[in-house]
Amino acid sequence: MSRTTQDQFIDDDEEETCPLCVEEFDLSDKNFRPCPCGYQICQFCYNNIKTTMNGLCPACRRPYDDKNIEWKVISPEE
Ligand SMILES: [Zn+2]
Ligand SMILES: [Zn+2]
Description:
This protein is mainly α. It has one domain (17-71): Herpes Virus-1, CATH 3.30.40. It is 29% helix and 5% strand. The longest helix has 10 residues, at 43-52. The chain is globular and about 50 Å long. The protein binds zinc ion (2 copies). Residues 35, 37, 39, 57, 59-60, 62 line the site of one zinc ion. Its EC number is 2.3.2.27. This is Transcriptional repressor general negative regulator of transcription subunit 4. Keywords: Acyltransferase, Metal-binding, Transferase, Zinc, Zinc-finger. Residues 18-61 form the RING-type domain.
């Protein structure tokens, strides 16, 4: 009973990772959208950008603002 490489690839594809630190999003990160453009990063990188970098979204260069953060609620069926 060995799984094929293809099956594993499909499984991996469902796990989303942060484009900046390549860490898997945890449950709250998956709903975390710090920018209106929808570019998704983990909360660790968001805080990192705000505190140690320029505070701009890497995708659209808009300044990050805590009041723009959206918490998307995704139903388990999707
Ligand atoms: Zn990250
Ligand atoms: Zn953006």
